[in-house]
Design brief:
Blueprint: E1 3-5, H1 10-16, E2 23-25, H2 43-56, E3 64-73, E4 76-78, H3 84-94, E5 98-109, E6 114-126, H4 131-140, E7 160-164, H5 167-171, H6 175-187
Parallel strand pairs: 1-2, 1-3
Antiparallel strand pairs: 3-4, 3-5, 5-6, 6-7
Helix pairs in contact: 3-4
Length: 199
């Protein structure tokens, strides 16, 4: 079963390559919701489905995977840093605290209306960080394109004390859940063929 990944993220491509399905990457411009337009829990779900739907309309015979990841801390979304000073402030705020990484995933197929939309939450707890450690991390990792000003797969041991939940979700794609959904779809499980409501 061939699938389409509606994301240009190299990290999502690397994760998806671990599943036993050939895939190609296709993206089309779509209107995404910005922080503040929706609740933090809803935003990644809606954006993931918008990305997937834009591709599924053009490739109705193939399953399409869309995803969107946000970091939620103290009830608000933390986006990408404006500059290194902003990144330093963000990592200082996260120091010794726990935040959530929420990824919305949409798996769609146009020809039969197959639809699965869900979110996966992972709790990440940072070590207590001193300014020198934060400065060294910012020297080692280009964080300006990374939500939350860090990447778990790049020297994450400098920052992270422990992770509760799916670590792949922190990278950008909850592979265990997605793999189960794709396996059910490939097997033709009739329970999965209805346009199930998101949960």
């Amino acid at each position: 079963m061939k699938i389409i990944l509606a994301s240009q993220s190299p990290r999502r491509r690397e994760l998806l390559a671990r599943l036993p399905y050939p895939f190609e990457v296709r993206t089309f411009p779509t209107r995404e919701f910005a922080d503040g337009e929706l609740a933090p829990d809803e935003l990644p779900l809606c954006n993931a489905e918008a990305k997937a739907r834009a591709v599924a309309e053009r490739f109705p015979d193939l399953p399409v995977v869309g995803a969107d990841t946000v970091i939620v801390f103290d009830g608000r979304i933390i986006g990408k840093p404006r500059d290194l000073e902003d990144a330093f402030r963000t990592l200082s705020a996260l120091s010794g605290r726990t935040h959530e990484v929420v990824t919305g995933v949409a798996l769609l197929r146009g020809r039969d209306g197959f639809r699965r939309v869900w979110s996966t939450r992972t709790c990440v707890t940072f070590k207590s960080l001193d300014p020198a450690t934060i400065g060294e991390y910012l020297r080692l990792v280009d964080v300006l394109d990374k939500a939350g000003s860090y990447a778990i797969q790049e020297h994450g041991d400098m920052l992270i004390d422990h992770v509760d939940g799916d670590a792949d979700n922190v990278v950008g794609l909850p592979l265990a859940r997605l793999g189960a959904e794709l396996a059910a779809l490939a097997a033709g499980d009739p329970r999965r063929r209805s346009a199930a409501a998101r949960r």
